[in-house]
């Protein structure tokens, strides 16, 4: 491959890694449109190659967030395991995906979520807030978490573990089908439905994504959906960019992280629709 093309793929990886890590997504929402619309790649090849980059980005970003002690590991491991069956299933059906109807419906869903986050940007989880068990279905299997990050900020929150597991399965499935990384769905759901603080949601989502995307990448590679050289170039850039995004996260308020995610959701939704 021409060195100029490799440099371009690497630069795209840096941008994807930085922004994706900052908002807790893998960055596939940037890669897939570029490969589909800019380079006219087949859908399955764009998805498989994107997931390899997402996996590298998520792993590097998770290391950055681990240093800040913002990852909820007890929750992350459970949710990550729940994404694996969905990721495998998604990679096997991507070739049979009709595309138009599903993309339109899912794109509209993302635009709706984006609008909701912009209208209600403040997360329910607040540092040091008291945690109360909700009534109704969201109180089923309710667990409480207490996290203190490296800067001494305290995060107390609670959520329904069974519903979180169900969400994670769906996230793994959608991530593997679309190649966009599960964080684009996981983070807003963790913040708005499950009451996670924004910083903890982005960090934990990245940890989950590292495992989910790696599983999907292996499945796609086995099916011949990965273009190895561009994937390696973008992955190298994403590893560097993820460290940049992780460093910037401490300087940006959770409200702006959610607004950045809302913008990304809106762009992906419009692209899909």
Task: Provide structural commentary.
The chain is mostly helical. The protein contains ten helices and two strands; from the N terminus they run H-H-H-H-H-E-E-H-H-H-H-H. A hairpin with a 5-residue loop joins strand 1 and strand 2 (154-160). The longest helix has 25 residues, at 43-67.
How are the SSEs placed, and which strands pair?
Elements: H1 3-23, H2 28-38, H3 43-67, H4 73-93, H5 100-119, E1 142-148, E2 154-160, H6 161-178, H7 183-192, H8 198-222, H9 228-249, H10 254-272
Antiparallel strand pairs: 1-2
Helix pairs in contact: 1-3, 1-9, 2-3, 3-6, 3-8, 3-9, 4-6, 4-8, 5-10, 6-7, 7-8, 7-10
How is this structure best summarized?
With 273 residues, the protein is mainly α. The protein has 10 helices and 2 strands, in the order αααααββααααα.
Quick tags:
273 residues; mainly alpha; 70% helix
Task: Report the helical percentage.
Answer: over 70%
Task: Quote the beta fraction.
Answer: 5-15%
For the termini, the CA-CA separation is 33 Å
Global structural class? mainly alpha
- Biggest beta sheet summary: 2 strands, antiparallel
Unreliable residue stretches: 123-128
Encode the helix/strand succession as letters: HHHHHEEHHHHH
Widest sheet: strand order?
1-2
Radius of gyration: 17 Å
The number of E-state strands comes to 2
**Large-scale geometry:** globular
Average predicted confidence as pLDDT: 80
Number of helices: 10
């Amino acid at each position: 491959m021409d060195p100029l093309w490799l440099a371009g793929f690497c630069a795209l990886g840096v941008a994807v890694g930085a922004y994706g890590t900052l908002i807790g997504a893998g960055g596939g929402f940037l890669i897939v449109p570029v490969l589909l619309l800019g380079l006219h790649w087949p859908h399955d090849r764009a998805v498989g190659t994107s997931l390899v980059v997402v996996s590298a980005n998520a792993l590097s970003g998770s290391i950055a967030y681990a240093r800040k002690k913002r990852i909820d590991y007890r929750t992350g491991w459970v949710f990550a395991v729940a994404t694996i069956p969905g990721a495998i299933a998604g990679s096997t059906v991507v070739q049979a995906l009709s595309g138009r109807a599903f993309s339109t419906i899912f794109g509209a869903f993302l635009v709706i979520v984006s609008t909701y986050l912009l209208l209600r940007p403040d997360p329910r989880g607040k540092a040091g807030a008291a945690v109360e068990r909700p009534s109704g279905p969201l109180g089923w299997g309710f667990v409480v978490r207490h996290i203190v990050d490296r800067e001494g900020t305290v995060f107390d929150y609670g959520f329904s573990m069974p519903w979180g597991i169900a969400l994670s399965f769906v996230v793994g499935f959608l991530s593997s089908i679309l190649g966009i990384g599960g964080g684009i769905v996981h983070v807003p759901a963790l913040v708005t439905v499950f009451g996670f603080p924004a910083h903890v949601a982005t960090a934990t989502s990245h940890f989950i994504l590292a495992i989910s995307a790696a599983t999907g990448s292996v499945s796609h590679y086995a099916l011949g959906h990965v273009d190895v050289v561009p994937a390696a170039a973008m992955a190298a850039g994403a590893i560097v960019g993820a460290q940049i995004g992780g460093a910037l996260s401490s300087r940006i308020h959770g409200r702006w992280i959610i607004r950045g995610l809302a913008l990304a959701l809106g762009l992906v939704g419009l692209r899909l629709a």
